[in-house]
Fold each of these.
Amino acid sequence: MPASDRYARQTILPAIGEEGQARLLASRVAVLGCGATGTVIANHLARAGVGYLRVVDRDWVEWNNLQRQLLFDEADARGHVPKAVAAQARLRAVNSEIIIEGRVEDVNSGNVAALIGDVDLVMDGTDNFETRYIINDACIQAGVPWVYTGAVATYGMTLLVLPGDGPCLRCVFPEPPPAGTGATCDTAGVLGPAVSVAASFAATEALKWLVGARDELSRALVHVDVWEPSWHAFRVQRKQDCPCCGRREFPFLEPQTVSLATTLCGRDAVQISPARPSQLDLQAMADRLLAVGEVEVTPFLLRFRAGDVRITVFRDARAIVQGCTDETAARSLYARYVGA
């Protein structure tokens, strides 16, 4: 079937047309993180005909992903298939005329430059603020536009970041929230449609930018709640003294400024030390974790189980993940439950 038939319903839109479709087919996009928001974003972009998609994720498919991560199925969960591998296979089945590259990697300060260096746009499909600040630093430094996307509970947010033209993430959120203080999908829950709506807003901003349809609303922080329901676009100004896009300081690209994972010899455990230690309210965190299961809390630490592992969190936000020797997996569990 000719490509003109595949994209026919899209090219008749005046905002896209044949010229816009040609731009999409010539575009290169990296989707960093392929969980809830990342699967929706990648799915939209592949079906729209973005010519090259790089999909990066560190995790594998689990049963609790299937409620909202739309590229995966039960066979992927049974086989513990890496998300990037499963996404690559599904997207290639969706559109064999574009290039899909799945990368099983943990996005970090050491590899982010290589992951974004040859693309036109970066899409945030990550699950933690630490990685988003790494992406923000890297994209501002390299001059690559990116779209922030987050979703939890029943709401989500998006922001298109255009280096040198509008605010970056640190103009809006100057510092990442301290570890253990932010809601995560594993502690606050998440509604599948909330993910889909937020990620669809993000994918729309990507398509608009790629075809050259720019407007002032694209510089707004969009907040949508599907349960209330409500939709708001907050005008955000670029801050001239922003440490990132203003002063061009990039601390999140320095390894010592991000959380450190260390395998504990003889302990069958990994210790996670956050870059910015804080004094956690352990009881408040325990209350948020009740949905996970039984939580033991003392004035000094709290403990809970997550599947086959036991996680101990200390007041300074340091954690020990017992029953695990894979540092990448331990960092993922830390992000899910502690919320770095």
Amino acid sequence: MGGHEPRPKIQGKEVSGTSSVLNAFFNPRGVAVIGASDDPKKLGYEVFKNLREYRGGRVYPVNPRREYVQGVKAFKSVLEVPDPVDMAAIVVPKKFVKQALIECGERGVKAVVIITAGFSETGPEGARDEEELVRIARKYGIRIVGPNCVGVMNTRADLNATFIMPAKKGSVAFISQSGALGGAIIYKTVKEKVGFSKFVSVGNMADVDFTDLMEYLANDPETTAIALYVEGLKNGKRFMEVARRVTKVKPVIALKGGRSEAGSKAVASHTGSLAGNFRVYEAAFRQAGILVADTIDEMISMARAFTQPLPKGRRVAVLTNAGGAGVLLTDQLEARGLRLADLSEGTREHLRSFLPPIASVRNPVDTTAGARGEDYYECVKALMRDEGVDLLIVACVVPTFAGMTPTEHAEGALKALREVRSEGIEKPVLAMFMAGHVSEKAREVLEGNGIPTYERPEDAAAAAEALVKYAAIRLNVA
């Protein structure tokens, strides 16, 4: 249910070696952790512990002072690690990073994550040290993520080359210029049961940057949307060129940090990047087809929407069992430039035939609180079949009124969607189930069937707007 139209591959020449080499960050046949530790207080402990869950290849600890790390035979150098080693994570003090990178080059490792900080974000001396790392990488044909980063994840392979908890499995790829903020968002989304396909903390972007990763992820079948937290760009021209191509095949959503003058100064001290004028970035993003989010919640809400097909217009139908929810959704939709669909007389007559007299059969459709799962089944069928509806939002405020089960409204909606989609009706559907933990099981039912489900009207409306705006970019619809 809720599948996509097939997404074409990006046309045109890729950056040399980008796809094959970057794939080593997400699907390595072997990984070396340089700086793996037995000390729980060190980052090398967490990185190695997390990577031990990886299903795609062997993970080797490198520590010259230890024979075993966390019960696994250790190696004094990456040069001693047996084949194959496609990726290395460097988690050693800064003074040892250069030598570790040289040894990776001599060993033939092509993908290196440098988690260690203390480079360009600290000033001119650190920037010179970072430039030297780049020269070494170029000499050996290495691609670097970082330095000063949290690391990378591929949830579908249980690859967690970071020192934070793993994200839940999902279909949104998230690239963050701030490691700590990226980590906080992972923790937040785990609690909210929202998943990601890939996560990359790019850090200082000495080498691999947003542009490289967008290009790679555009052709990643496990990713339906790409979310970016951006503070600054180092090669705006190339970013724009690639973004224009990527957004033709896959949605990109950006949250820009450093919008204010004070925020721009904070960016410079954070990653050493120049934030630039927000309005310039915003205009450039929109010109490239990138959707712009104003908050973290909005970015996540927008990105999650793309498990759904694209709408053919901006006419939204709202189904709810409480008038207040319909009113709030209507306000949010209108504020975002969407409009309520005018339901046909045939649709309204059908709704009158089974809903109580006090129900509203105009959009938003208010079934009243007594509506059961079978009422949602009939309403969803009717609204999806209405030719004046481009997108449907199914809202449920209190799902357990008068002996109702927690999931019956969700199950009724899903039954209807299966039926209409078997008829060839492919319209996007979003859900809003608002009753906190009481609605948790219903949200799980919907999410498990590919229906993005939100708790707040503003989040559901942001998702609807993202679908409509991206449809305009992709399908050239109004």
Amino acid sequence: MALHVKKNDTIEVICGAHKGATGRVLKVMPQKKLVVVQGLNLAKKHVRPSRKSPQGGRISIEQPIHISNVLPVNTKTSKGGRVGYKVNKEGRKKRVFADGHEI
């Protein structure tokens, strides 16, 4: 299934507690229609002491956001925008913003 955001895209959150914030997509889960964004929707997780974290304690981890709540950021305008698809001359599908600017 084609989605309007991909890994490493810069996105803007359009609703919810983090409305207006931007970040980079770390992970996309297309079956669940969720994305994980760097530095947004943080939750605390308690971890026991281990080799990875010898001190233990509380760490912050990013929680997923529903894909309908994010838009890719247009580099021209620095704002989130809707995305459509166009087929170029070689027959490849490209993501294109409403103003015609390619991602």
Amino acid sequence: MPAMRMRFKTSLNLPLAGEVLALLALAGALLGGSILQAGNIQERARRFTRPVEFDFTAWTLRTLWGKWEMLSVGGARFLPPRERVAVVETYFAAVQESQQAERDLQEVLADPRETAGEAHLSELRAHFQAAAARKEVLTPWAEAVLESQVSAILFRNGLTFGGEPIPPVSFHLTSPPRALIVSPREVIRQDADISLQPNLAPEAIQNLEAEVERSLNVSALVERTGGIGVYPTMVLESADLNWVCEVIAHEWTHNYLDWHPLGLRYNASPEMRTINETTATISGQENGALVVQTYYPERVPSPPASPPPASGGEQNAPPPFDFQREMHHTRVVVDRLLAEGQVERAEWYMEVRRRYFWEHGYHLRKLNQAYFAFHGAYAAAPEGAAGEDPVGEAVRLMRKESPSVGVFVRRMAWVTSWPRLQRMAGAEGNADGR
């Protein structure tokens, strides 16, 4: 969704200049494959987005320069394991401090009742600036340590060649671009995905969506992203170590698949996009969780508490609100209405449901066809925005029938089409008598 010196972990035993050339080659190849091929709707929508589109080339060059600085000095690979863990823990504490300092400053500036003097404001600004500076110093160290730790987990799960991941794990903690998603109104389908600058004002986002929808008669949504599978990959800066490790592994999986049939055919059909994203999600969840379990066991999330048994007057109480289940139900109804040609009724229903989600604490800015086109491709869980799409179920079956997440990813990498996955999943299921 992100100046210290450290050696960048690479799988190539090359001189320094050779390592940098290899990084540049990988970045160029993966960057070229990461951007959606422009179709008719994509190009028509870009008439409205060109002034605010994200510059991948400039970002990649800046990031590679930072990696070059780390390569030229070295450092992280010589740290003892305990110190590596301490570097990452210190970084996440700095992120949390920086974010809290920013919230404190914004709250004082935005509160109309606040009467803080200039001295207090100066103190808050100084605290925020100092916290942000500490975070920036620690960022490349934390990146290098996490790159080596994720690499070790990938090796454990058999996702390496010659003992090293291909491509090497490389990411940058940053603010990834926003995505403008465009879907037809008559059917849920992603026809465009355009990367925009991450810091667009809320009014600019609303105006852009309205202009695209009005001019092209489509459904549009500008959404935040948690990561982008360019090279080095982008990972949204966060104080949540579990989430960051998951996204690092998720985006590396895209890099890995880009060199295999599944990744090369990412844009071949909506089904192939869902297969790609669901495969990367499952891989990210499992490999990321194993990183935390191995190196940061005290940060492993506690299992959710079981609800107490109902008794007395609680027996007739409604079940707790389940976002995934409710979103699944919403998608199923919307798909049915659109299949019947009731576009306006489907859009009315989505707005009603959006307000329902809002009342239960899920503040969705928009809920429309573009929302489902974007979020429905991430079908690692049985319920959610994918509705009754069978693609996610087939991918989940492949994981269930694979002895490890590494075997699962290697199998999925060779999927060339949705019918091919159906045959593979059918064969796996039949092997157990289903």
